[in-house]
Amino acid sequence: MLTRKNKIIFLWILFIFSVLSLAICPLIGMKNISIRVLLQYHVDELEPSIYWNIRLPRVLLAFMVGALLSLCGMVFQAIFKNPLTTPFTLGVSSGAAFGAIAFIVFGAEAASLGFAKSYFSAFTGALLSIILVYIFARIRGGFSTFTMLLAGVAINFFFSSLILLFQYLADFTKVFQTFRWLMGNLETYGFSKVVNIAPFFILGSLTVMLFSNELNLMLLGEDMAISRGLDVNRFKLIMFVICSLMVGASVSLCGVIGFVGMISPHICRLIIGSDHKYLTKASLFFGGFFMVACDTLSRKIIAPSELPVGIITALLGGPFFLWLLVNKRKGDALL
Amino acid sequence: MENPAIEVNNFSYSFGNGDVLNSVSFAVKKGEYFSIVGPNGSGKTTLLKNIMRILTGGKGVIRAGGIDVRDFSQRELAKAISYVPQPDGRSYPFQVWEFILMSKYPYLNPFSKITAKDEREVDEVLESVHMNRFKNRDMNTLSSGERQKIMISASLMQKADIFLLDEPTTFLDPKHEEEINRILKRLNRERRITIVSVTHNINLAAILSDEILALKNGRIVYFGSPDGFMDGRVLSSIYDKEFELITHPGKNIKVILPEVIC
What we know:
A: mainly alpha, 15 helices, B: alpha/beta, six-stranded mixed β-sheet, four-stranded antiparallel β-sheet
């Protein structure tokens, strides 16, 4: 395992990579943009407009979504003490997907009700799934981890079935739209999506960072955490609500982008260890950087067309994770 | 009169339909070495977990230092009582010093930083169990005996006056078992830490304890001195088997002889 000093160096490296990715990646795309052109900014020129209105917001959005999914994956893995947990395990994503797909399929009706954009509908779906998981967990008494997981899985299946039903009933164009939505995408024009997700990202990340001691205690098991003075049920509830809102916001705006939320925390954990004082920051920067890098590749690799970013995250992250796993020392636990 | 360290008053607890603890009442005096014995499934662990509030919802009252444990915040309770669970081989992905520092949690706020004083305290608690050289080892690479000593030093870091230990020497070889027991007895004598230990080792319970509580099917079947406990009739009523007892040659105390099985 890295020494304390090396952990801090690693965090600085991740921070620098993140800043560099935010600075450089908006310049890369179907058509590369030079810094010189940007500095001679004129509103009527095409390249600065692409940079400011399309690429920069997209890269910022990618960073925040990647960071946020990675952080939430890390939190859920610690709370459930289960390495297979993802930010989507508790059904938030399928709730959001159901909301979005309901909007796509019944769009005109929804618009007439005042839902102008699919992500309002998606966020409502996410909130619905959060409330359902919460109710089921409370009905059983306490706030049992197993009940939450099982309720999450059940709600996932329930909403997935409804999505299939809606797709079956919809026409081909709408089915294609729903299919593309489910693959996730980071397309945006202007900063509205960035502004929408920023409060979830900033407040959520800061809160998770403040709870690093508590997350460490959860890794010892619930009975040990309680005996060290942690009110486990209250803590789980706080984390569940915060992370679900973060994931709900992300899925509502960008669809279901898989893999990054499960694998990023593991990659960081294998390098930097399980101490959440370092792991939260590492997961945040790595998740953000990784998503920006994958999104840039997805825009570049078959330009002028684009690959869904989820394909790239899985193709790159999977082998890297397996390489780390094979090379990890004996005694280094995955959680 | 001084409040007992722990007082359990007419306490019952059930999982589903079955009573695990049934109208249990006893008190542990401050500074006592107190052993809880009984057959498997008699409710010993459930009792410890209810004292620590790991389990909640029982009927009756449990007090620590005269205060109902339900009136403590979890942090305040952790300052009063520490708990060492049954050894179960679970993974702790931390180094020894990190693990011990985590016991400072009841005294921390989200912005607390590790200070030189904290690091000195880690050294001190490791020294008290003679484990300084393990400070930078990964928890998952320790043997069961080493791990138990680290658990005890973590309890010391927590600065509680009452230690609850659930079978602290199960799975240990005789050398480590003796070491752990010596450490616990020393802490009990020198620092006046109240030890409440669940054990299956009847002889050690008799030798080490000031008082013994025996549970069977969730009820108290014996509560009193080790002398009274080491009686053939008492023991056979608890464990449903006969025991052969002899007087320990070095101490005026009865111990049970191991069974010769042919």
